[in-house]
Amino acid sequence: MRLLHTSDWHLGRAFHRVNMLGAQAEFIRHLVTTAREREVDAVLVSGDVYDRAVPPLAAVELFDDALHRLADLGVPTVMISGNHDSARRLGVGAGLMGRAGIHLRTDPATCATPVVLTDDFGDVAFYGLPYLEPALVKDGFGVEKAGHEAVLAAAMRQVRADLATRAPGTRSVVLAHAFVTGGEPSDSERDITVGGVAAVPAGVFDGVDYVALGHLHGCQTLSERVRYSGSPLPYSFSEAGHRKSMWLVDLDAAGAVTAERIDCPVPRPLARIRGTLEDLLADPALRGHEDSWIEATLTDAVRPADPMARLSERFPHTLSLVFDPERTPGEPAVSYARRLAGRGDQEIAEDFVAHVRGTGPDPDEQAVLRDAFDAVRADEAVREVAR
Question: 308 phi and psi, to 5 degrees?
């Protein structure tokens, strides 16, 4: 049986204020085309379909279009909710959608109720484990302490118990949305730490033929049978080194796995560049990044004038600007908070200007700051009298 494993669509999400809806629509077209051309038997979507619990209307419309395209294709789809989704909202109409071959698994109580598909070699049972928030599901799974490992282990015990009742030779696939030990996170995933522990060991999923994971945005192979597809599009500059893709997985008669990465269309590459402003504007080695989305880190000792405007002349898609002045040899790394200790409001404001710009305020700017503080103090005095 041939499976197409994807996750973390985050429909409705922007990238540094760049609207990604067009790119997300292009990905959906690519997904459907791949499913048709590669003769896929099932599409697996491992959570975070939306970016927010209450997504914008345009994102809902795109999701609706995706469901219609997949249903028209006649390829069954198994989909779970992730930690960004509202499980109840995503699961509305699940029963009706199931009749069209779109199988939504958003209720923790259905973890051990598989979608069963059949090929020439027999049945394949697909178990959808939606994101399990430990504090909310621990009672339902009968675990005493809220923790990701505890609730996932309990859900997998239910999966194995159901699988044991199935015909001999039944193959099994689990969809889950979790942070599994060994996975490499990026800056764009929402923290799901509970009690200081977010990761669960991959051994929790022992006993099934393939585990289609979602949550981490980098495509990763934790073992031959346990994989993250990653997000189809970048959502932070920490993903600059990612190759955005899906897994095309073949499950043979014995449950053995072979997998191929299918690249996803990305609007433009990401690049992180670093140096002084003049060096970045002149460096011929950066010519290949002139059409990329750029995060530039400036190391100038003094903040240069109009850095974003000047960078954008060469790199028109610069989206993020970071200042990290290089210290002179022997300069102590004194924290900003320590430098402010014991100083008055005016001194703090002047020091802040120097901290972010590299030079302190001139006399006119000092006067503006002084007038501002005087106005605030006068307003506070009036408020105190009014009380």
Answer: -65, -45
